[in-house]
Amino acid sequence: MGLGAGLGLGLNWAGSQGMVDADIVGNVAIVGKEIGDLFLRLLQMLVVPLIISSLITGITGMGDLRTLGSIGGRAVAFYLTTSFLAILTGIAVVNLIRPGEGAELALLEEGAATKPLLTETPSSIGVVLWEQLESLIPKNPLAAATEGDMLPVIFFALLIGVFIGIAEHREDSKDASIVRRFFSGLFDVMMQMTLFVVKFAPIGVFGFTLYAAAGKGPAAFRVLGWYVLTVFIALLIHATLTLPSILRLLTGRSPIDYARKLTTALVTAFSTASSNGTLPLTMENVEQAGVRPQVTSFVLPLGATINMDGTALYEAVAVLFIAQVYGIDLTIAQQALIALTALLASIGAAGIPHAGMVMMVVVLNAVGLPTSAVALILAVDRILDMLRTTVNVWSDSVAAAVVDARE
Fold first, then answer.
1. What is the distance between the terminal CA atoms of the chain, rounded to a whole angstrom?
2. What is the pTM of this model?
3. Half-sphere exposure of 300 (CA within 13 A, CB side)
4. CA angle at residue 318 from 314 to 322, to 5 degrees?
5. CB 112, CB 378: distance < 8 Å
6. What is the SS3 assignment for 294-361?
7. What is the spatial distance between Cα 91 and Cα 242, in angstroms, rounded to a whole number?
């Protein structure tokens, strides 16, 4: 990561000074992205079979299916609590720093990235959540797996695991145990494949970091510097104070030691900006940190899909920043509405094309701000996406440790 950032920033600076052709810098950034994409594709190749085999193996290994309800209840309660705490942190920091005050709208519009590619704008958060509920049940589980739509895959895998257990307890059942052993063996194979892919992590991380540093450089921060700093501080508070405090209080674990064991997953999450892509490494690291497979197999796939602390925080900060840029002073009630909408939006984001943009539009709609303002902050979205994805994965990992300790 250090090598990619150093080389990328050096090239970006040389290009801005005319010492190196700007096209060469751009081509180097593209090469870095292509290298990173190859590694990300290797990880994404593992995700669906790993989720299916791990969930089914975990459920059939629980014995009493009431344990599944207990684990699920604790996990969802953790997700909602930490996401709400993240949103409150973001709102507090953005009100304290007020990065949008004094920001010149003309400069932001001049440096705006391309407009959001949204063919349809959701009318409300209720519509988004209802669509998510509908999409939870797949018309074709194989098609959902092919498209990488994780919630239907998780739902279908849960049903298979439950009914393998039911079938095994029937007196006339002959072959259900064979199915259980098949998925258990598949899970072992997928974890071994994950260990193999991990060996390429440094190359993938280098490529993505080179792409971000050479392609964007510090120029994107000139106008949006205070906004980026605000998001960074809020994410830092949540990642280094809130989540570690919860981990220490509820599990007795050392947050520093636990984070150290998750280094590979966290660095990969930062460089790839993909929670789902990082999932195989997250599962491997969390199990190596001592969390039981029965817990990781359920909590982590679900968390990678619906637990978005970093994203929820980012949505709240971004909307308040946009309001400040337009000189609109939102009331406490409006900020409370932003908090609630961002919480629900972070859950509904999974499986939606251009999810971050869609959710931002929903939150902006909730308080009557112009939805076109999303374009003002897209110039730095890649960097902030890397930061918030890291927080998302860290939160998922803490959730697994907490649920494991409380069961």
1. 37
2. 0.78
3. 35
4. 175
5. yes
6. HHHHHHHHHHHHHCCHHHHHHHHHHHHHHHHHCCCCCCHHHHHHHHHHHHHHHHHCCCCCCHHHHHHH
7. 15
Distance CA 105, CA 268 (A): 35
Q: Identify the three-state secondary structure at position 174.
A: coil
Dihedral, 190, 194, 196, 199 alpha carbons, nearest 10: 180
> Which residue type is seen at 52?
I
Provide, for the chain, the percentages of residues in helix, strand and coil under a 3-state DSSP scheme, each rounded to the nearest 5.
Answer: 80, 0, 20
Give residue-wise pLDDT tens across range 304-345: 878 889 988 998 999 999 999 888 888 888 898 888 888 877
| Amino acid making up residue 203 | I
Scan for tokens 């869609």, then name that residue: 358
> Would you state the structure tokens that stand for residue 209, as one six-digit string?
């970091």
Number of domains in the chain: 1
Cα separation, 288 vs 397, in Å, equals 12
Residue 347: CATH number of its domain: 1.10.3860.10
User: In this structure, are residues 364 and 106 in contact, taking their beta carbons and an 8 Å threshold?
Assistant: no
Range of 322's domain?
2-406
